[in-house]
Amino acid sequence: MPFLDFSALDLKDFRPGIKSWAQIGEYLIMAVMTIDAGREDPGHSHPFDQTGLVLDGNFSLTIGEEQQSLRPGQGYFIPAGVHHAWSVTAGPVKIVDISSKTLGA
């Protein structure tokens, strides 16, 4: 599946308030997610890089000590090992998120 129409993907329930579609390759994972208002992740880190782009809606993202509200057309890059958190106050938000796979994953 080398080409995608982000507006036509069949997103499935992933977690409460989050629907997702993912393509998992040998080295990368690409996920498209919709996240409902009121959802948040208080923070975590992981041993791989992560990057993404907001397609629709707005959400607040904290990467390390920096916090920003992102809107469509804006993106983010989270280096491996950096603590990050997010919240969606007015939703839903739709993002495309890409991360590298860890060795042995």
Account of the protein in words:
Strand 1 (12-15) and strand 2 form a beta hairpin. This protein has no helices and 10 strands. The mean pLDDT is 93. The chain has a single domain, classed as Jelly Rolls (Sandwich). With 105 residues, it is an all-beta fold. The strands form 2 sheets. It has a 6-stranded antiparallel sheet with strand order 1-2-3-10-5-8, with no helix packed on it. A 4-stranded antiparallel sheet has the order 4-9-6-7, with no helix packed on it. It is 0% helix and 54% strand. The chain starts with 11 loop residues before the first strand and ends in a 5-residue tail after the last strand. It is globular, with a radius of gyration of 13 Å.
| Individual helix count | 0
Determine the fraction of residues in helical runs and give it as a percent range. Answer: under 10%
Radius of gyration: 13 Å
Strand content: over 45%
Rounded to the nearest angstrom, the distance between the terminal CA atoms is: 21 Å
The CATH superfamily is: Jelly Rolls
The helix/strand series, from N terminus to C terminus, equals EEEEEEEEEE
Overall mean confidence score, pLDDT? 93
Q: How can the largest sheet be summarized?
A: 6 strands, antiparallel
Q: Kindly report the CATH topology.
A: Jelly Rolls
| Helix-strand makeup class | mainly beta
CATH class label: Mainly Beta
Strand order of the largest sheet: 1-2-3-10-5-8
Query: Based on CA inertia axes, which overall geometry fits?
Result: globular
Low-pLDDT segments? none
| Integer tally of domains | 1
CATH architecture: Sandwich
Report the strand count: 10
